[in-house]
Amino acid sequence: MKAVYKCICMLLGAFIGSGCSGGSESVSPEYGPPQPITEYGVPYATYILSGSVSDENDQPIPGIGIRIRDSYYGDHYPVYSDESGEWELTEYLSELCQSSEEGCNLEVNDVDGEENGGTFADQTIQLNLEQTEEASDWHLGTFAQDDIAVELSEASPPDES
Q: Who's near 92: CB < 8 A, 6+ residues apart?
């Protein structure tokens, strides 16, 4: 009887455990880049943003950090503008940040100081997201905004008082 009980427990454990396995990403050729497997039924939304960063003279600024800031999770890992000032960001969040009172913001920060040609003031941009893919199952949909043009001005020198 003990052997039967042990066998049933092993089969049940294997069956339950298989729902949480499968690696950390799933590749879906029809939807583009790999998407994370969200465990335990946590709904998530996909955010796809792109744009450029330039100075007041319309010159591209490389090395500027760009990230989503939402009221629930705070800051997320940044992406950086390339040599031509262009950037792309794909983020997976387990809530709809645009449904909060603060909405979804883009934080733009000069993380390398003088290395990119100057010291630029930080900027927060309110996103105006468009839903590009409807929700299905645990996926809350895909939201995007393209061609976000960010113009940064030189930062004021710190007070020496």
A: 35, 36, 38, 44, 45, 46, 47
- Is 140 within 8 Å of 96 (Cβ atoms)? yes
Q: Are 150 and 125 in contact (CB under 8 A)?
A: yes
Q: What is the rounded CA–CA span in Å between residue 82 and residue 10?
A: 52
- List the CATH code of the domain at 41-152: 2.60.40.10
6, pLDDT greater than 70: no
The band of 144, judged by pLDDT with boundaries at 50, 70 and 90, is very high
Which residue did the predictor score with more confidence, 122 or 94? 122
Place of tokens 């941009």: 125
* Residue 32, phi-psi category: left (phi > 0), alpha (psi -120 to 50), beta (remainder): left
Residue with tokens 């600024």: 61
CA dist., res. 102 & res. 40, Å (int): 28
Q: For 82, what's the count of Cα atoms within 13 Å in the CB-facing half-sphere?
A: 7
For residue 5, what are its two tokens?
């009980």
Nearest to 127 by CA among 72, 75, 69: 69
